[in-house]
Amino acid sequence: MKFILSILAVLAIVFLIGCSARDTSGNDIGKAELTELSKKYGGTYVFSRKFESEIKQREKKAGIKSRIGQ
Fold this sequence. Notes:
Number of helices: 3
Order of helices and strands: HHH
Distance between the termini: 59 Å
Largest sheet: none
Strand content: under 5%
Oligomer: single chain
Radius of gyration: 21 Å
């Protein structure tokens, strides 16, 4: 019984890894275009108001100029 469960677990893991790899393989963006986009729009994007206010408070406390909301 443990042997069958082990095989099923391995098959499930292989299936999940295969599906996630297939989903990321459709990226048609080239390295040059990716580099250009990262230079143009680089940075970290925060979509949570809670985290945004926490980041602003920490940056103010540390004396760092905030770039959030630009």
